[in-house]
Every structure is written in C-alpha cells, then in structure tokens.
Write a structure and sequence with these properties.
- This protein is α/β, with parallel strands linked by helices.
- Helix content is 50%, strand content 14%.
- The chain is built from 20 helices and 18 strands.
- The strands form 6 sheets. It has a 5-stranded parallel β-sheet, with helices on both faces.
- Strand 3, helix 3 and strand 4 form a beta-alpha-beta unit.
- The chain is elongated.
- The relative contact order is 0.07.
- The chain binds adenosine-5'-triphosphate and magnesium ion.
- The site of adenosine-5'-triphosphate has 16 residues, from strand 7, helix 7 and helix 16.
Length: 487
C-alpha cells in the first residue's frame, strides 16, 4: 500500500535557502507549499490541513514558535519541526514545549532534516494507531475481559450471550492458554447466577481421594485426616457455577459420580449416606480431545454427552492473528499501569539519595507516556505461532515492558528469545496425510505460497530481503511470485 503524499508547509524568510530545501523535499515525494513569513504561514494554515510544518524559528514579525503554537492548536496531529540558528537550543526547547515535534540546527544537511521528519512521522503514526486500538478496546470488542475482534471471537461473543441466559452444562475445549477459564467466568458473570458463587476446581491438580472430598465434601472420620464435617465445592457453589478444569483427567470412579450429579443433581458427602440436592451449573474445560478419549475408552461416553450439552471450542491464537494487536495493546496498558504503580511506590520511599529519587521520578514520567509496539516487533508478534496462546502473549508483553527500561516503545529486542528464532516447525508435522490421500503438487504449491507471503510480510514487501530469507535468488522469487499471481 503506497503512503499518501504528505503536504508540507515550509516557512523560511531566506528565499534561496527556502527554494533549495523545497526542491530537495519535493524530490523525496513531499508536496511543498512555501511561506516567506509567519504571517503568510498562518494564512496557509487557515486554508489547508498540512501534515507537516517545517519552520525557521527566527522570522521577521510573527516568529516560528508562535507559528508552531498556532499550527498545533488548529491541527493537533500536525508534525512540526523547527529550524534553529547556531546557539539557540534554548529557543528550540521552548518551541518543543509549545508543540513542536523536533528541531534541526542551521546549517543542516538535507538528510538530517529527512531523518528528523521520518522519525517524527513514525512517532505520530504509532500514536494514532495506538489511539485507534485503544478506542477499539474501549468500544466494541469487550465481553467481560475477553478481547477479540476476529470472526471466531465475535461468533464466540454471540454464543456466550445465549449461553449465559441458560443453565445448561458447558464444555469448553481448547489448547492451553486460549482463555477457557476467562470464558467460564464470563458465562457466570453474565448469567442470573452472578449473585452467587463461581468456584473453580482443577481436577488434575490434586490426588483422586482428595479430589473426591473437595468436590463432594466429607464427614468426620471419613478418611485419615478428615477431622470435621466439611462442605464440598458442589455445595458451596449452590445456585452458582462450578468450573471443573481439566475434566479429562478424572478417574473412572469419579467420572461415574459426576455423571450422577449431572443427571440427578444429587450426591453424598464422602463417608455419609445422606443425599444432598444442589442447583449448580457445571462448566467443564479440557485441553485434550475428549471425543477421542471416549473412542479410546479413557472417558465415559455418557458423561461426555452430559457435559457436552453446549460445546465451546476456543480457537488457538495462531488461527485468529487479527486479535494479536488488540490483545498486545490490552496487555501493554495493563502492565504499563502496574509498572507506573511500582515506580510511584518506589518514588515515595523516604530518606533516599537525591539522585535516586530523580531517577525514579524519571521512570514515573516514562511509564506515564502511553507505550507503543514498534512496527518490527508487531510484525514478529503477528508471525509467531504462539503454542502457549494468549497466556504466552501476555507473558511476552509483561517481559517486554520490564525490558523496555523506560523507553516508550517495545522493540524487537525486548521480545522473548523464542520469538526471535526463525520458526523451526518440525517438517513431519507440517501436513497431515488424510485417509483419502492428497494432491502432492497442490499441497506443496500451497506451502510455497504461504512461505513466500510470510517472507514478504516479514520484510515489509522487500523482495531482495525476502529472497535472502528463503535462500533464493531475487529473480527466482520474482518468477515464483508471477506464477502465483497467475494461478
Ligand atoms: N480473549 C482474551 N482476552 C483477554 N485476555 C485473555 C483472553 N484469553 C485469554 N486471556 C488471558 O490469558 C491467560 C490465560 O487464559 P486462561 O487461564 O483462561 O486459559 P486456559 O485456556 O484456561 O489455559 P490452560 O488450559 O492452560 O488452563 C489469562 O491471564 C487470561 O486472562
Ligand atoms: Mg485454565
């Protein structure tokens, strides 16, 4: 996608210099309007929304700082660069206070100006992208702490609304870190049961005998260590929701007891014969394929059908990459807020050396700026395959905030090492060989297309770099691209 032409207002009273700079900028693709005074600049500004203003500070009449102030007031997003004479850094600082993005010293090489322009434009782009993402977060795509705007997630939100209004049993399946527990909580908090408890029990975390007592409770002397009578989670969650995590790891005996709870909503405490009736919604989660476990005889089929009344399948993050920028932004804001809190707490520590206090005040200042993710780092976040899904992304952002060391931008080098390695997907698992066979040429063409697209994506469309990534000659890559476009 080609960048739209940038409109630049150039304010300089020295005609020869102005003309020279204008020509060089025009060569770099900028659309230039020239003004020979502050007054003329203000007239141009009232007529047109420039993207950029480059102004000399010392002008006869209205000076550059006042022009910058007027420009920024009218167009808050404008990039304003001031040009200062020798020894007037103080004035430049003053102009920055009044809204300029940066400055260059006179005399300057055109490359210096171009460099300052590029970095200011990049800053502005990130800032507006950031504001855009934040607006998206706040507006539409939030369902009780669940972030996502991909097709898969929007459909999930619709499903959740329906599910929440019922008391049916739900089975949530998905890889680790895809958000099964967040979804379970969201269902509870959007249901009429929200005024009662949501309790979670991880079936794989405790030994079987204890799990049974946790679930059903026990009476005194039911087993060694059972000193008193105790309510189980099922009783505690009466009228609320019980989340049974990793339900696939339950023993056969417990599976049978759980089946009875689902069928009759009744059970006995361990060591007791008195039957207890409860009204509990069960939400179960698993990251193994329960259907397959039923086929293999490792999980009761009747229990599976009782649990699987409303199946919810959490898609892995790599299948909904559109959500990555939104999630990254969400976690960035959260961890930045935490970092700011930490820095403030440190800040108020009494009796410290002055210099240490200054350093922390600086840290507080930095964390106050909204942080952004550099384009390069974002591209890497997008191309990674995220075996640990959202949790892994969350951890990566937390680490990056810590590693950013007070910079207001997350760079490639702040990302964890596993993201910096080239994707080393084991060749054997790339493609499954289905029962009915496949078309080898077609599959290989598909893989080729995918890798070429990804290499171009990673290199920002630079064919030379992309070819190098794939160990191809540039001409070979170009030929392949042509062939792909024809098909
Ligand atoms: N859609 C989402 N929006 C915001 N945060 C999310 C989302 N999905 C997951 N998370 C966050 O990712 C982390 C992992 O989510 P969760 O614990 O629900 O995963 P899980 O599927 O239960 O994983 P596991 O199988 O390992 O238990 C949590 O910190 C959660 O808040
Ligand atoms: Mg979980």
């Amino acid at each position: 996608m080609a960048e739209p032409t940038k409109h630049l207002l150039l304010v300089e009273d020295e005609a020869a210099l102005r003309q020279a700079v204008a020509e060089q900028l025009k060569d770099r693709g900028y659309q230039i309007t020239q003004a020979e005074s502050g007054e003329a600049a203000l007239t141009h500004l009232s007529d047109f929304a420039f993207d950029i203003i480059v102004t000399d500070l010392r002008l006869p009449g209205i000076d550059g700082a006042a022009v910058v102030e007027a420009a920024v007031e009218r167009y808050p997003d404008i990039v304003a660069i001031v040009v200062t004479g020798y020894g007037t850094v103080k004035d430049a600082v003053e102009a920055i206070k009044r809204g300029a993005s940066d400055f260059v010293n006179k005399p300057f090489q055109i490359d210096e100006l171009l460099h300052v322009l590029d970095s200011s434009l990049e800053q502005r782009r990130l800032k507006s992208e950031n504001a855009y993402l934040r607006a998206q977060l706040e507006e539409r795509y939030r369902f009780e702490g669940l972030i996502g705007k991909s097709r898969a997630m929007t459909r999930l939100f619709q499903l959740l609304e329906t599910v929440a209004s019922t008391s049916s049993t739900v089975l949530i399946s998905g890889e680790t870190g895809t958000g099964k527990e967040v979804v379970a909580r969201a269902v509870h908090h959007n249901s009429a049961r929200r005024v009662h408890r949501f309790l979670a029990l991880n079936c794989s975390a405790i030994p079987e005998t204890l799990l049974e007592a946790e679930l059903f409770g026990h009476v005194r002397g039911a087993f060694t260590g059972a000193v008193g009578n105790r309510q189980g989670r099922l009783e505690q969650a009466h009228k609320g929701t019980l989340f049974l995590d990793e339900v696939g790891t339950m023993s056969a005996a417990l599976q049978m007891k759980l089946l009875r709870v689902l069928q009759q909503r009744e059970f006995e405490r361990v060591g007791d014969s008195h039957t207890i009736k409860v009204d509990v919604r069960i939400i179960a989660a698993t990251n193994s394929d329960l259907n397959q476990m039923v086929a293999d005889g490792q999980f009761r089929g009747d229990l599976y059908y009782r649990l699987n009344v409303i199946p919810i399948l959490m898609p892995p993050l790599r299948d909904r990459k559109e959500d990555i920028p939104l999630l990254a932004q969400h976690f960035l804001e959260r961890f930045q807020a935490l970092a700011l809190q930490d820095a403030k707490n440190e800040d108020s520590r009494p009796g410290d050396a002055r210099s240490a206090q200054d350093a922390r005040s600086a840290a507080v200042q930095t964390f106050r700026q909204p942080m952004t993710v550099s384009q390069e780092a974002m591209r890497r976040l997008m191309s990674y395959h995220w075996p640990g899904n959202v949790r892994q992304l969350e951890n990566a952002i937390e680490r990056a905030v810590a590693f950013s060391g007070g910079r207001s931008q997350i760079d490639l080098s702040d990302l964890p090492p596993e993201l910096l390695q080239v994707d080393a997907t084991p060749v054997t698992s790339v493609v499954a060989l289905p029962e009915e066979g496949l078309d080898l040429e077609e599959v290989i063409a598909g893989i080729e297309r995918d890798l070429i697209e990804r290499s171009l994506e990673r290199t920002g469309g630079n064919k030379g770099h992309a070819a190098r990534l794939l160990n191809l000659k540039r001409t070979t890559l170009v030929e392949k691209l042509k062939r792909l476009q024809r098909n």
